[in-house]
Amino acid sequence: MSLPAVVPAPVSIETGSGAPFRLTSATTVTGETDAAAALSAIVGARTALALADGDGDGDGIELRIDTGTGGPESYRIVADEASVSVTGADAAGLFYGVQTLSQIIARDEQGWTVPAVTIDDSPRFAYRGVMLDVARHFHPVETVKGYIDRAASLKLNALHLHLTDDQGWRIHLDSRPELTEKASATSVGGDLGGFYTKADFREIVEYAASRHMIVVPEIDMPGHTHAVGLAYPELAEDPTLSDHMREIIRDYGGEEPRAGSPYDGMAVGFSSLKIHDEATYDFVADVFGELAAMTPGPYLHFGGDESLSTTDEDFAVFVARASAIIADLGKTPVAWHEAGAAADVADTTVGQYWGFLTPQEGAAEKATAFIDNGAQLILSPADAIYLDMKYPSGPELGLTWANGPTSVERAYSWEPSDVVPGVDDAGILGVEAPLWTETIRTSADIDTMAFPRAAAAAEAAWSPATGASELRTWASFRERVGALGPLWTSMGIGFHPSDEIPWATE
Ligand code: ACM
Known about the structure:
With about 500 residues, the protein is an alpha/beta fold. Helix content is about 30%, strand content about 20%.
């Protein structure tokens, strides 16, 4: 019998020789109530069966936490004809066991089953993320919650929100109310903007926590700050346009950026905060101070990418000060890898590598600087797991700058320890798949671009290294991810039905 399809691939999965467990209208679930509610919701959507509360007599599904059983976020599933037990080493592990259980539910001639199986599983990397850009197009709270559900089902545990960019400021801050009053109304292409109130942000953070995810807020600086200038003109330099930026504007349309007017085009690199003005650092302290108080997770991201109109010297000054402000708030700064060029970046700063699978133009050296400081890297190789890259065939959505269209196979076929030379598992905090939204306007657009490729990123983040498991091959992944089609449909995920994948219809 072939192995049940689990994505991301588990550490160990063995099928038993016995008959499967049968899920019926009499099946009961016992144990942790949050996990039972999560399982009941998925099983209900997938099978239309309502699981009843059990009495713990050992003949239904049992969901337990046993802190002695393994490392953080790990779980074990044992299923046979008589019973199914899911044991998490902690609440997150139990939640992930429930996700795996929901994936292996199958149907035969007599009804729904859980195959006889033993699964032992734990994550490779502690940080497993997706990023959603809510600045280029604003996405409402309900869309973000839906993305949290989808990501959590793949055992991802971090939602990075790119909250600000040239095109808009999307988080209300009491200390700087003009940001959302004056700089949130529009999105790319003249579309409507929007922003999160503090209550909205709290709702997102709490919803994420209920799915064992942290929220990593990003305020991108010192570039990507044209919107700041709409609210606080005294903090921002006038836009600077290079020939390359003019080329982008020619290719993608839109007006040239002008000081004091909202920008709704797709050019990057033309904006900068004023580096040698103390008012800038009062602003940075206000913004991150308020965000730190709103963010229970350990990370605050200060961007640092594509500051193309800031000199290298000024960039280094800014990065040192912004990272120190965040570190002094008791948070761990995160920055895109360019910030590694700043000699005095705070030592605890985590770098986020967004170069290609084969690093170019000094990207590896900048990324390695974070390791030399004693910190780690989050890997987001753009030509593999930038979820906004076009598919080779399929929807017109997306961009192509990261080595052309990105197939599901390319999103899958890379090994984290092979990306930045000299950086192995000890230097890697985790893997994150960003979704930039220049062309992405709706939750349906997000689904199409993220699924199935977010599953490839999740496997890089959670599963054993390529070569360490016979499941960690493209041939295995395409079969396993194809088997999830009906589950994803029952969850309302409008995935791209890529012709690279043999999609199951039931
Ligand atoms: C980036 O894609 N500019 C981080």
